[in-house]
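Take a sample.
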Amino acid sequence: MDIATPGSLTLRGQVFNWGSQTYLMGILNVTPDSFSDGGLFDTLEAAVAQAKQMAAAGASLIDVGGQSTRPQAADLSLSAELDRVLPVIEALRQELPDLPISIDTTKAEVAVAAVAAGADLVNDISGATFDPAMLATVAKLGVPIALMHIRGTPQTMQSLTDYADLMGELCEFLSARSEAALQAGIAPQHIWLDPGIGFAKTWSQNLEILRELPRFKALGLPLLVGSSRKSFIGHLLDQPDPKQRVWGTAATCCAAIAGGADILRVHDVAQMRDVCRVADAVWRGAN
């Protein structure tokens, strides 16, 4: 992994030129209990096959997670999380040697083991607040980190949705966490920000975040948005089945691109790739 130029990042030979196009992070939940696809990819063979399919469909990186972060999800032990994710990362590194891999974890020890197994990036839904060792660990590893906004934990977050100033508080949190990352020794080119759609937010607050995304761009860091199949889309569509929220997800992805998102974390890569190609042509002038 190396830095190419200001405003870009190179992972496994793939250059991420921020602002030039939208990049897709394919979700690979190797869990039995994730809200949308729990149990579908919790065998090694199924996980590898899904990653290959997402890569072929246009994913620029794959996000491997062993801990479900759906509302009310129980915390997983360190050993159980390692047992879930490490064989998958090792297999993907063998099967897809040039594809960047992200580890979706809040545990510094998992980050260390995952990077040793071949991961290139840490995606921490707690903004590196759950494990006080995370920022120093990532700095030592020399890899990028995505810092997400959350209140509470997956068990408590949906009762913590009262904000005096939603956007102001989110910007303040993300600014503080990025500053903490810098103080820990993480390079500025290695910090991504995520407003945490669906995490301690109501359906209407999620819509407000999508409308106000350009405010986060003032922080000057790549912006990751994860709205895929989430419950606020189900609320709007009266659709309880997450797998039937593909086109609602497409609308939110289009809105995110219009608002300046750099990376979209998605389940349905092929469909969202088409959304990105057209939306990038409209709002970024890409072709």
